Amino acid sequence: MRYLTLLLLVVAPLLRSAAQTDSLLPYADISAYPTDYAAGTVLSRMVDALGFRYYWATEGLREEDLTFRPTEGARNAHETLEHIDGLTRMILAAARRDTLGKGEAEPAPTTYPALRERTLRGLAEASALFSGQSSTELGEQRLRFSSGGQYSEFPVWNLINGPLADAIYHTGQLVTLRRMTGNPGNPQVNHFRGSAGR
């Protein structure tokens, strides 16, 4: 009995700490929604929808989920997380009005918790920056690239059909991969309502 008590004293704070860290991440719930339909607010909500789906697709992944590769040439889940993080960097750069330079991007964190957190926080920042912008302001926003002395820029339309849609697509792949490893997502998640309750 003494050992059980000691074990609980050691493990309980660690579990509580892990739960607190996860509860501090954005996008566990998006059931509250804005009342205005400004162009930037609609784009912000699209980013939030990605964040919510990503949060629940990546919640509780195990090592065997992260390393699972359905076929030889396919990405495993961790590589897919890295790809989504790269797409998030593009979304965030557009929201910040930054220019993406080839080879200048900060490398993705190597651990699953750090990678997941950086992606979720990047999406939350991008959402906040887009929120409330008028259609005129959003029309002036650009996705900018610079590489080897070459510069290109694209309107927000390309952000929507490019990195944003691609990140949603790959988040769906994560859901499929985790089902294949026997670790389906939380059945309480309601994507229509944007919450993890029925």
Would you write up a description of this structure?
By secondary structure, this protein is mostly helical. It has one domain (34-180): dinb family like domain (Four Helix Bundle (Hemerythrin (Met), subunit A), Up-down Bundle). The protein contains seven helices and three strands, in the order H-H-H-H-E-H-H-E-E-H. The protein has helices at 2-23, 39-58, 63-67, 77-96, 112-130, 135-140, 156-180; strands spanning 99-101, 142-147, 150-155. Strands 1-2-3 form a three-stranded mixed sheet. The chain is globular. The N and C termini lie far apart (39 Å). Residues 1-21 have low confidence and may be disordered.
SSE topology string: HHHHEHHEEH
CATH topology: Four Helix Bundle (Hemerythrin (Met), subunit A)
Radius of gyration: 19 Å
What percentage of the residues does DSSP assign to strands (E)?
A: 5-15%
Distance between the termini: 39 Å
Kindly state the mean pLDDT as a whole number? 88
Extended strand count: 3
The CATH architecture is: Up-down Bundle
- Low-pLDDT segments: 1-21
Please report the number of helical segments: 7
Keywords: Signal
Protein name: DinB family protein
Signal peptide: 1-18
InterPro entries: DinB/YfiT-like
